Write the structure tokens for this entry.
Amino acid sequence: MPLRTALYMPQAPARTGRFRVNLILTFRSGVTSMGELEEFLSENGLSGAKKISKGWSSDIFLAQDAKGRKCVLKVLHAKSNRRHMSQKETEFLRLANTIGVGPHWLKTDSSRNIVMMEFIDGVPFSEWIFGKISKTELKNFIDSLIEQARKLDEIGLDHGQLAGKGKNILVRGGMPVIIDFEKASRSRKVHNVKVLESFLFRSKDSGVVKRISELLGC
Ligand SMILES: Nc1ncnc2c1ncn2[C@@H]1O[C@H](COP(=O)(O)OP(=O)(O)O)[C@@H](O)[C@H]1O
Ligand SMILES: [Mg+2]
């Protein structure tokens, strides 16, 4: 990893030589520089990377291979301290894939903190739900989402961020794809179904709950 990565760190007090070296080493094993992303792209025959999202800890890039097939790269960005991002995202996404949940994991470069996965060509749930959808479409969507959550509960994987703004649920062809497994856990008590049911049907003063009950007519 290039030394310039270390320069992203906030003003580091450099009282002693050893303290400074430690800090630099810590930061050198973390964030991904643009140079490293370029190396990853060229090593994997990928091109045309463009940033499609900037989150708290990661940037999401869309890229394509020589045959024009699209993929997503989740890359730890410069200001983040979540240095275990790629390790965690990989462990939990791969586990979710075993039960048919989440985008297909494709590759991980843990030294550069990059996770490559299937591109989900869809829209966030938070947008989709306020669009033009029929009662049947919504019912099918909800059945599939709850079923995926039930399977996650069954294997003991708690996603941890299923509710909130509904950004970790993408909708492709009317069906849900759960993304962002970085903060999932195998040791927390699982509550995927419970969280989703409250997000969809019970949360007070929620626009999502109102919209769903309007569409379902209940
Ligand atoms: N596999 C994917 N396919 C399509 N879009 C994705 C994919 N993964 C992430 N995104 C987009 O990037 C955003 C941020 O990704 P996410 O994994 O949730 O990162 P963060 O930890 O920053 O929330 C998502 O809300 C979604 O819009
Ligand atoms: Mg997210």
About this structure: The chain has a mean pLDDT of 87.
